[in-house]
Design brief:
The protein has two domains: 117 residues, 3-Layer(aba) Sandwich (Rossmann fold); 148 residues, Dihydrodipicolinate Reductase, domain 2 (2-Layer Sandwich), CATH 3.30.360. 36% of the residues lie in helices and 28% in strands. β13 and β14 form a beta hairpin. The longest helix is centred in the middle third of the chain and has 18 residues. Belongs to the Gfo/Idh/MocA family. Keywords: Oxidoreductase. InterPro entries: Gfo/Idh/MocA-like_OxRdtase_N (IPR000683), Gfo/Idh/MocA_domain (IPR050984), GFO_IDH_MocA-like_dom (IPR055170), NAD(P)-bd_dom_sf (IPR036291). It comes from Amedibacillus hominis.
Length: 311
């Protein structure tokens, strides 16, 4: 089936998701921004039929059956609720909520409305991560015992990213660590601790997150203060796997002693894989994703809240 999307916000990430929609063969009916001029410019650029100067016009549009929300973090919950109140399916950029209780309430309301709701988390659907999931489960390299992740996005220009109540590296990127590894490891227990530094206004600009998922030791460092090496390394008893740019990975390397095997998945727009998954879920009449589930999102909300409190 073809899904008919309405896009909420003209944020930079919207362009990447937009290409995923088009590559999957779905349709973009409309785009909305609080600035009508911005919406019109984006609509003209991508030949989108309708441009609106308010989000509510998207929700009122009868041709739109699913919305993609990518406005600032503090307003995710408000817009999700509005979209669901109009019986629209919803995909919302991470984090789906800043408060764990809000996250639970959103999924409850979506089920009540009979609508599909999913937090956008492209990393889980990448072919690279599907391979690593299989390697972990089949123990091709023995047991996974440690994971090290490093990422950075120096000096973000979006004003809200420097707001301590919704921005910074924890709200902005900790989801990649938590949700990806929760999916790959499927742990029964998770313990987390964190240290971080802050800007003068209190926004967390660097964080070091340590976790134990069952018996797997994890360290994730995220910085918006300066550039770092961007990769994940999965350590097994019989070798290790390196994944450059793990949150949007197109390749990985398996290293065993002196032997290196490189696997590449060429892809222009990595969000196409999660868009395909969304289409499959809605085509089956599902109200939540079996991969990026309500439980996975709410667990992440709880762990992010713990990390923020520790910092």
């Amino acid at each position: 089936m073809q899904l008919h999307y309405g896009l909420i916000s003209c944020a930079s990430i919207t362009d990447r998701f937009l290409h995923g929609i088009l590559e999957n063969g779905d349709i973009i009916e409309a785009i909305a921004s609080r600035s009508l001029i911005k919406a019109q410019e984006k609509a003209k650029q991508y030949a989108i039929p309708k441009a609106y100067g308010s989000y509510e016009e998207i929700y009122l549009d009868p041709d739109v059956d699913i919305v993609y929300i990518s406005n600032n973090n503090a307003n995710h919950v408000k817009e999700i609720k509005k979209a669901l109140s109009y019986k629209k399916h919803v995909i919302c950029e991470k984090p789906i909520a800043l408060d764990p209780e809000d996250g639970k309430d959103l999924f409850y309301y979506a089920r009540k409305q009979g609508c599909f709701l999913m937090e956008a988390q492209k990393s889980l659907f990448l072919p690279v991560m599907q391979d690593i999931y299989h390697i972990i489960k089949t123990k091709q390299l023995g047991d996974l015992h440690q994971v090290s992740l490093s990422s950075s996005f120096p000096n973000p220009t979006a004003t809200w990213m420097h707001d301590p109540m919704q921005g910074g590296v924890v709200y902005g990127s900790a989801n990649y660590t938590i949700e990806l590894l929760d999916y790959l490891i499927e742990p029964n227990t998770i313990h987390v601790s964190a240290l971080g530094t802050k800007e003068e206004n209190g926004t967390c600009n660097r964080v070091s997150i340590s976790m134990i998922m069952d018996d797997v030791l994890i360290n994730s460092t995220i910085s918006m203060k300066g550039d770092t090496k961007k990769q994940a390394i999965f350590y097994f008893t019989n070798g290790y796997i390196e994944v450059p740019l793990y949150w949007k990975a197109r390749e990985y390397r398996i290293i065993q002693q002196d032997h290196i095997k490189r696997i590449i998945y060429p892809c222009r727009y990595e969000m196409k894989y999660e868009v395909l998954h969304i289409n499959e879920c809605i085509s089956k009449g599902l109200l939540e994703s079996p991969v990026m589930s309500a439980q996975r999102s709410t667990i992440c909300c709880q762990l992010v809240d713990q990390i923020i409190r520790q910092i």
